[in-house]
Amino acid sequence: MLKTAIIIIVLLLFLAGSIWLQVFLSKAKSKWLGLIIPLICFIFSIITILSLSMYTNTGITSVTKTVDGVVVTDKIITSQSEKPSMISMLATAMPVFLISNIPTIIFLAIYFACREKLKLRNELDKMNVQDLE
């Protein structure tokens, strides 16, 4: 139980740290810094989709026949299932892609919210400078 609590606390700290880092990078003068974390999340989602091909239906069966403790026959049978159709591949890949892009969407929302706030603050500063002149 204690181990689970420690893992949850560490994961929550990691989540809070990554959100803080995203806010910090989004408020930087360079607009590209705030796009680093969403880009990393997007690359991970692409890697997830590309790794789906590893999980095809390939079966490996080992058949061993013994007579009185002596191995008579030892075979390994590999069976390959039919190639999946394009529709079934898309039906599998699209939900995985959408779910794996949830962090990307969240980090982009943080980025755009911070950039909008920065833009409004800059416009207010310009208006204040114009009022002083």
Overview of this structure, please?
The protein has a two-stranded antiparallel sheet. The relative contact order is 0.12. A hairpin with a 2-residue loop joins β1 (58-67) and β2 (70-80). The model has no long low-confidence stretch (mean pLDDT 87). The chain starts with a helix and ends with a helix. With 133 residues, it is α+β, with helices and mostly antiparallel strands. It has helices at residues 2-26, 36-50, 86-100, 102-132, and strands spanning 58-67, 70-80.
Structure keywords:
2 strands, 133 residues, two-stranded antiparallel ribbon, alpha+beta, elongated
Whole-number total of structural domains: 1
Largest sheet: 2 strands, antiparallel
Helix share, percent: 55-70%
Query: What fraction of the residues are assigned to beta strands by DSSP?
Result: 15-25%
Q: Helix/strand/pairing class, anyone?
A: alpha+beta
| End-to-end CA span | 65 Å
Q: How many whole angstroms does the radius of gyration measure?
A: 27 Å
Outline of the structure:
With 133 residues, this protein is α+β, with helices and mostly antiparallel strands. The chain has helices at 2-26, 36-50, 86-100, 102-132; strands spanning 58-67, 70-80. It has one domain (2-53, 86-132).
Write the layout of secondary structure elements.
Blueprint: H1 2-26, H2 36-50, E1 58-67, E2 70-80, H3 86-100, H4 102-132
Antiparallel strand pairs: 1-2
